[in-house]
Specification:
Elements: E1 7-8, E2 14-15, E3 33-35, E4 54-57, E5 63-66, E6 72-74, E7 82-91, E8 96-103, E9 108-115, E10 121-126, E11 140-143, E12 150-155, E13 161-166, E14 172-179, E15 191-194, E16 199-204, E17 207-212, E18 218-221, E19 230-234, E20 241-245, E21 253-259, E22 264-271, E23 274-285, E24 290-297, E25 306-312, E26 318-325, E27 336-337
Antiparallel strand pairs: 1-2, 3-14, 4-5, 4-27, 5-6, 7-8, 8-9, 9-10, 11-12, 12-13, 13-14, 15-16, 16-17, 17-18, 19-20, 20-21, 21-22, 23-24, 24-25, 25-26
Length: 338
């Protein structure tokens, strides 16, 4: 089973990069913090007055909302940042859409916060990461829901994989752990914070790394031989994490459930009609218990129509498949339900 993950090269050409194994045997580095300059506008906690809907970034890096009639309602002006697909998250409590973007002006990545209500820019926080020839490689993003802080991950100039917490108000960055790699750049990818177990789950080399926030130790959950986990979306009621699978030996795309306490990954249904999935882009509607993703029909021509597909996480039934983009058009670059 193949899948796509598009990222921007700094020449603004889309590339694919091979995955490489990570060396987990190196010792972790002690926690340290650095104070980074922030703010674009005075910070306020945003009341959750936005409409429950799908939100994301379009190819012009404008924040959009999917309107009730299925059209895309643009909320923000185009952004000057280069971004990687689905390198974003939503703080639903405070009504903020976050993404990591590479600035052409400063040649460094920033954590950018946009209002879900009106698309205004709330913050632009520089991050201590290194971007090589490609934007977004080895980077992660997830909300810490009990505070205004955000989990971020990336590589420094020595190619250490840093996982940390950034405070958009002050710009403070607290390093949680470093995972060293002596090899080439590796993909970043999906991540999610689990409040019940106080763990940060993130995908690396198709396996899942589990960072315990209390001990700062990292556990490896090997899954790459059986699945590819595309998107990790936590159900706030059950605590189960839902995503897409469809790795070697399965042959078809699947919906999968990650049970965080017993460390099991269970396919909940198959989606044989759709095969190619775009960029790890998934969104989970916890009210409808359904997962959204962007896909092409199985065995379709690479230039054929892309669809916004919605599947039930209980059985995998396809609930909707709306034509989205095709004929060379660029599809949305991220998608979240809030």
């Amino acid at each position: 089973m193949v899948f796509s993950l598009l990222i921007w090269e700094k020449t603004e050409k889309k590339k694919k990069i091979p995955l490489n194994p990570l060396n987990h045997s190196q010792p972790q580095h002690p926690k340290r913090s650095m104070l980074l300059f922030l703010l674009l506008v005075p910070w306020t906690v945003v009341a959750a007055s936005f409409l429950p809907s799908l939100y994301g970034l379009n190819p012009a890096q404008q924040l959009f909302r999917v309107a009730p009639n299925g059209t895309f309602e643009i909320l923000s002006n185009p952004s000057s940042y280069l971004v990687s697909q689905q390198l974003s998250c939503v703080d639903a409590l405070r009504g903020i859409f976050y993404f990591i973007g590479y600035s052409r002006d400063t040649s460094r990545p920033y954590l950018v916060g946009l209002s879900l209500t009106n698309g205004s820019t709330l913050s632009e926080t520089p991050l201590p990461f290194y971007d090589g020839s490609y934007v977004g490689v080895g980077q992660y993003l997830a909300v810490e829901p009990s505070s205004s802080r955000v989990f971020v991950g990336g590589q420094d100039a020595n190619k250490y994989h840093i996982m940390g917490l950034v405070t958009p108000v002050s710009g403070e960055f607290d390093i949680l752990c470093n995972l060293t790699s002596s090899l080439r750049d590796v993909f970043g990818g999906t991540s999610v914070f689990i409040p019940e177990t106080n763990e940060l789950w993130f995908e690396l080399d198709l396996d899942i790394m589990i960072l315990n926030m209390a001990t700062k130790k990292v556990e490896v959950l090997p899954v790459s031989e059986n699945y590819e986990i595309l998107g990790m979306n936590r159900d706030p009621v059950s605590g189960v994490v839902y995503g897409l699978g469809g790795g070697p030996g399965q042959g078809v795309r699947t919906v999968v459930a990650l049970h965080v306490r017993n460390r099991t990954i269970v396919p909940t249904g198959t989606v044989p009609a759709y095969g190619m999935q775009m960029g790890g882009i998934t969104a989970y509607n916890w009210n409808a218990k359904s997962i959204f993703w962007i896909a092409q029909k199985t065995n379709a021509d690479p230039q054929s129509q892309w669809y916004m597909v919605q599947n039930s996480v209980a059985g995998g039934k396809t609930l909707s498949a709306a034509p989205l983009c095709g004929n060379g058009e660029l599809c949305p670059w991220s998608l979240h339900y809030a």
